[in-house]
Amino acid sequence: MNSIATNIHSTRASAPFDLKASGGTDTARAVVWSIAGSDSGGGAGLQADLRALAAFGVHGCTAVAAITAQNSVAVTRVEPVSAELLDAQLAALAQDLPPQSIKTGLLGSVENLRVVCRWVDRLRAQGLTVALVVDPVLGSTTGAGFADEALVQAYVTELLPRATLVTPNRGEAQRLLAAARRGDPDGDVEAMADALSALANPALAVAITGGDVSQPDGMASDWLISPQASGWLSLPRVDTAHQHGTGCTFASTAAAALASGYCVADAVVLAKMATTHALRHGYAAGAGAGPVSAQSDFAQHAINLPAFTPSTAGRAPAPAFPALRDPALGVYAVVDSAAWVRRVLDAGIRTVQLRIKDAQDPTLEAQVREAIAMANVTPGAQLFINDHWQLALRLGAYGVHVGQEDLDQVDLHALRQAGVRLGISTHSYWEVARAWAQRPSYIACGPIFATQSKDMPWIPQGLDNLRYWADVLPVPVVGIAGIDTRNMAEVAAQGVAGAAVITAITRADDPDAACHQLMAEFAQGRGMARDALPVRARPTL
Prior knowledge:
Layout: E1 31-39, H1 45-56, E2 59-70, E3 75-80, H2 83-96, E4 101-104, H3 110-125, E5 131-134, H4 149-159, E6 165-166, H5 170-180, H6 189-197, E7 205-208, E8 219-225, E9 230-236, H7 246-259, H8 264-280, E10 307-309, E11 330-335, H9 338-346, E12 351-354, H10 364-376, E13 382-386, H11 389-394, E14 399-402, H12 412-417, E15 421-426, H13 429-436, E16 442-445, H14 462-472, E17 477-479, H15 488-492, E18 498-501, H16 503-506, H17 511-526
Parallel strand pairs: 1-2, 1-4, 4-5, 5-6, 6-7, 11-12, 11-18, 12-13, 13-14, 14-15, 15-16, 16-17, 17-18
Antiparallel strand pairs: 2-3, 7-8, 8-9, 9-10
């Protein structure tokens, strides 16, 4: 079985999703091709794809692979276009609007599938990095079949080996595996995803969606395998009869995110958020199930942020960790010795992290004990022990801070039971979703700026991203990495609870003066109106 793993290389740091800043006519947008069927009822297919792509803020192009006669209650006819016509559509697009990603839906024939394969190969041979998201539309929810066995076989042997991500529901995954003769098509979801992933080299990213299956826990859960992480993405099921086009919305949003530079795991988290929000805005159109309605503000609501967990046992929201005694963390000093803890406390800083990375340091326990004792007698102090959770638990620490790479090793239940506060570092959407699943006391987001203190594979997020997370997350947010006296006021002005600093104190010529200046800058920033801040470029998607 796969489990959540540390992200080694994300193509993009987590970014805000704010279309209010994107309306200029000169703004270049990523291009996504949707190659799918036309739904005469307007609920799914190319029509749903275009709504989802527009909601994300990319430019959607369409190539009609099939024409359907359908309404909200039935599909009465499906007719593939000729391979020559599909090829002509793609040739015209390639000449003027080459894609950053391609999303496929209903293809209608083996010949059309092979046209898609040839164009994916041709574009990549030209040096274009083109992501391919395959939504294997094999039938409709009303029972109409869209693919014979020859077409399903072509998916397995020709299209999926070229794909970046495949997004089947459980029934579609079983049918693909039956055609591939891989494993037990009646096996569990995680085993099916493993078998599908093995159909490509390098391994294919797989998101088996579960919104069509009612679960006893009331959750809608998707199983993801990706190069960055694997696990369950879960949100409470949206109780609505209007769910037509959910698969199209999910796959199209993932394609839009990949085109915009997000890694696969982040793209799937965004797809989950967008689809859930679209379900909440579904509406009646005709006598049957109405369409979902993709909305551009889907990423602005914490209610849409899924929990990312490694097992079915953790799909429901976890009990929350205790709230901070004072959520106004302010300047958050990260230091590597008890002596430094004493120095920053004496200078007036009240949020401190003791970060001793060497677990074999013979003075580790003594320093943790001393730091805890100092914090306990300092009014308003909130001390977090980095990583060494067992020692912190045994010595009665107020709080623990862990990174993503250590989260699997921590006994979270024991920390909750003891009333320990928990902070978790994050760098991307999927890491925030993983942290959010544990309902921590605070979430740290970064790197905000480039930093010398730690070698990170992450793109600096900047102030716009920090503002986004401070606005969206319902727990205190701490900005991390590259923060010093030059930018502290602007960091604080983004509405964060705290701003972590290391070298701005520990490498300062006068650390005590640096502490006072940082606190003054933070206080000044909190008093600034964010709308009065200098206008920066649109947040990078």
